[in-house]
Amino acid sequence: MIRLQNIEKSYRHGLSQTFVLRRVSAEIRAGEFVSIMGPSGAGKSTLLHILGMHDGAWTGEYWLHDQPVHALGQKQRLQLQKEHVGFVFQSYHLLDNLTVYENIDLPLSYRDVKKSERQAMVADILDRFAIVGKKDLYPNQLSGGQQQLVAIARAVVANPSLILADEPTGNLHTDQGREIMELFRRLNQQGTTIVQVTHSEANATYGSRVIRLKDGWIAE
């Protein structure tokens, strides 16, 4: 599903060059639940943003569903992202002026999905996540755990094949974090590939494999 070959990311400072990622090569199979771990500054979030096609300033080869991301233009990458990728962030990234329903509907509004189909898809996800009673509330009326639940619902409403999660329980207390990880486990069991960045060894146990980074390199 994902194949990376010699991915490198660097920044120039005058005549000097600072590398964030060095010669990262890895494969992630469809249906895996992979955790990316390592100390602060290791390049974990940078790698996740490359996988999510938020960052296009890198070198190397990246294949997603047999599509050569490295050879695609910005418009083609955006289309591939829309079709296959859902995002979950540590800080939720919900829009404060939209209700729960409207936040979940947002990614569908960017696609060619009829309004009646969108309504059915949002209703289904509200039911699956047991948040029907929250649909008319705004993010500031929800707890942190509830906001993250809504963020995950938004990420999966369009049935992406890949979910990318950056420290998804970082702002939650232990019980809320456990509930979110259990939800990820169920989504993975239903066939969704998940790649998460985490500092938590406990969270990593929910996955099937760990990729460890150190100073931008994959640590053996």
Runs with pLDDT <50, length 5+? none
CATH C-level class is: Alpha Beta
- CATH architecture annotation: 3-Layer(aba) Sandwich
The end-to-end distance, rounded to whole angstroms, is 22 Å
Biggest sheet record:
6 strands, mixed
Q: Figure out the total of helices.
A: 7
Q: State the total count of DSSP E strands.
A: 10
How would you describe this protein?
- The chain is α/β, with parallel strands linked by helices and 220 residues long.
- It has helices spanning 44-51, 74-84, 100-109, 115-128, 144-156, 174-189, 201-204; strands at residues 2-13, 16-28, 33-37, 59-64, 67-68, 85-89, 162-166, 193-197, 209-214, 217-218.
- The strands form 2 sheets. A 6-stranded mixed beta sheet has the order 6-7-8-3-9-10, with helices on both faces.
- Strand 1 (2-13) and strand 2 (16-28) form a beta hairpin.
- Helix 3 packs parallel to helix 5.
- The model has no long low-confidence stretch (mean pLDDT 94).
Task: State the gist of this model.
With 220 residues, the protein is an alpha/beta fold. It contains 7 helices and 10 strands.
Task: Provide key terms for this protein.
single chain; 220 residues; alpha/beta; Rossmann fold; six-stranded mixed β-sheet; 7 helices
